[in-house]
Write a structure and sequence with these properties.
Pfam families: ECH_1 (PF00378). By secondary structure, the protein is an alpha/beta fold. The chain has helices spanning about 30-45, 70-85, 100-105, 135, 145-150, 160-165, 175-190, 195-225, 230-240, and strands spanning about 10, 15-20, 50-55, 60, 90-95, 95-100, 110-115, 120, 155, 170.
Length: about 250
């Protein structure tokens, strides 16, 4: 089964496409491993100036695959790998992003979303919390917005995502996302590899420090929540497409 499409290359930009639309590109253990290997290959390839991460289907990433979840350490390692990669990683979003998918998005250096995109941190509705994905998210997004969306699980659009700092730019209602991204990619092509790596190191220092200080604690919190009775009810209700027992 294809989880990641073969990479494509265009003038120094390598595009990696999440290609598991049947499960809405959910982060299964195999997908996490495949994406990590592809990023390693990009890091080692001198012809790659930057990486674009995009998706097939109408969902960028639905979060963790509840039927084949990745090891929490592997998911944390993937997000940290994106942050620490010596080459910029640019997210190109034209669909929905949910739960752990926002962690993937938050780890990217630059991100653009089209008018069809929507976002939601739905963990609280499953008896969980956005624990490990807080490491790339909380240093980047507006604190008051984080509080609202962490607690309520409300859905919001690309314009709101840009306002709160989750994404870099939102394409307009009639604007093609690739047109919106063109100046960004051209700018990356004009930068030197050393200049990009050194500049990225400056802007990611706080995020990497958060990973190094809090990863183990947040992994433990996440594991405890997943093992709880409320989370079992929440995930079962989600898979059965019914309301959980606590919904009022």
């Amino acid at each position: 089964m294809t989880l990641l499409a073969p990479p494509t290359h265009d003038r120094g930009i390598t595009t990696l496409t999440l290609d598991s639309p049947a499960n809405r590109n959910a982060l299964s253990a195999p997908l996490v491993a495949a994406l990590s290997a592809a990023l390693d290959a990009c890091a080692a390839d001198d012809t790659v100036r930057a990486v674009v991460l995009t998706h097939a289907g109408n969902t960028f990433c639905a979060g963790a695959d509840l039927t084949a979840p990745p090891d929490p350490h592997a998911l944390v390692a993937l997000m940290r790998q994106i942050v620490a990669l010596p080459k910029p990683v640019v997210a190109r979003v034209t669909g929905h992003v949910r739960a752990g998918g926002l962690g993937l998005l938050g780890a990217c250096d630059i991100s653009a979303a089209g008018p069809e995109a929507s976002f939601a941190l739905t963990e609280s509705r499953l008896g969980l919390a956005p624990a490990v994905i807080s490491m790339p998210l909380l240093p980047r997004i507006d604190p008051r917005a984080a509080t609202r969306y962490y607690l309520t699980g409300e859905r919001f659009d690309a314009a709101e995502a840009a306002r709160i700092g989750l994404i870099t730019l939102a394409a307009g209602p009639t604007e093609d996302i690739d047109q919106a991204l063109a100046p960004v990619l051209d700018g990356l092509r004009k930068a030197s590899p050393q200049g990009l790596a050194a500049s990225k190191e400056l802007v990611t220092a706080t995020v990497l420090s958060t990973f190094d200080q809090h990863a183990e604690d947040l992994i433990a919190r996440s594991a405890a929540l997943f093992a709880s009775a409320e989370a079992r009810e929440g995930m079962t209700a989600f898979l059965e497409r019914r309301e959980p027992a606590w919904e009022l």
